[in-house]
Amino acid sequence: MRPTEDNPQRIDPALGRYSRQILYEKIGLEGQRRLAASRVVLFGCGALGTVLANTLVRAGVGYTRICDRDFIERDNLQRQVLFDEDDIAAGLPKAEAAAAKLRRINPSVTVEPVVIDVNPSNIDRLADRAELLLDGTDNFETRFLINDLAVKTRRPWIYGAVIGATGLCMTVVPHDTPCLRCIFEDAPPPEMNPTCDTAGVLASAVNLVASLQAVEAIKLLIGRKDEINRHLVHLDVWSGRVVNMKVQSAYDQGNCPCCKRGEFPYLEGKFAATTTTLCGRDAVQVHPGGATRIDFVAIAKKLQPVAAGPVSHNRFMLKAAIDGHELTLFPDGRAIIKGTNDPDRARTLYAKYVGA
Ligand SMILES: [Zn+2]
To answer: Considering only CA atoms, which of 19, 67, 15 is closest in space to residue 40?
Structure first.
């Protein structure tokens, strides 16, 4: 019998696993073939990242590189759908555990894990040959870095962010739709920037934002750029409210330093956070990139619910016991994190609790 579009399983047994997706008219057999030939890079494999990777690998994206620096902790399991108790017992990094799980889900595509702290010195190489960049990160610094690379190399990327019950999502097609810096010129100061580790996060919000990101990714990968959502989506799963915000004028009328003026300071490492291991002190100093002024009152309020004991501060420093570490924060955003010699661990703690 001749293969037909409406019976994909007869076309090629290998495509049978995608039959319900191929039946969806906007994708079809041609779209499925394009997905199989596509190549993406995912930065961050936590809450958003695991749902994104899960959806795209099941959908048949041919090659997915997963970059993440963290290990799995028990409080991740509430929302990070690719991990389980066995992964924690095995002490696996997130990228490796995700790849192992995804290969069991779909062995017909390639998943490449890279355990790495994504920064200006390596992002270009990590994104090598990827036609689409995906945001599964949890901080502005890395998002602006992705944005710089995407705009400079004219590749689309998909922004996603979740906190509490709320989320944001936006598809960035450089020199067409607004980029992230058209919308947010600079990262908000840390006290204005709650993190999932200080304000909590609901899995439903994560799943919804990552699902929106994934469908935008599929549209771009199968060549349906004309059908992307050109709005900034804001949603609240608790109230059920979804708002599509019109943002095109931010690109059309704006003077964005990135996509209009061609400045890429994040890619050039001008705002990159640096860490120094303080020898013999079991401590790491984290210095955020760029100029920051810290509001100790606001930070103390943010940290108090998750700190072991009172968060104290004076004009010169703030001290808090968090996650088995002692955090000392200075007015310029610099921090000393005691209880570790591992710069990646210190950066993770900084991003989680101070925000980056
Ligand atoms: Zn821009």
So the answer is: 67
For residue 159, report the distance from its CA to the centre of ligand 1, in Å.
13
Selection from 88, 86, 266 nearest residue 184 by Cα: 266
How remote is the CA of residue 275 from the centroid of ligand 1, in Å?
A: 29
Identify the pLDDT of residue 70.
85
Q: Which residues contact 166 (CB under 8 A, 6 or more apart)?
A: 205, 234, 235, 236, 237
Ligand 1 centre from 257 Cα, in Å? 7
Q: How far is ligand 1, taken at its centre, from the CA of residue 136, in Å?
A: 20
Q: Ligand 1 mean position to 259 CA, how many Å?
A: 4
What does each C-alpha distance from 30 to 16, 24, 131 come to in angstroms? 14, 11, 18
Distance 27 CA to ligand 1 centre (A): 30
- What is the spatial order of strands in the sheet that 274-278 belongs to? 274-278, 283-287, 335-338, 325-329, 318-322, 312-313
Residue with tokens 């995700």: 98
- Helix, strand or coil, per DSSP, at residue 125: helix
CA 265–ligand 1 middle distance (angstroms): 13
pLDDT digits (tens, 9 = 90+) for 323-336: 899 998 988 888 88
Return the structure tokens found at 108. 């017909």
Greatest alpha-carbon pair distance for the chain in Å reads 80
Rounded to whole angstroms, how far apart are CA atoms 8 and 28? 9
> How many A from CA of 199 to the centre of ligand 1?
29
In this structure, what token pair is assigned to residue 241?
């409210």
Residue 97 Cα to ligand 1 middle (Å): 35
228-232, 318-322, 335-339, range with greatest mean pLDDT: 228-232
Separation of 267 CA from ligand 1 center, angstroms?
14
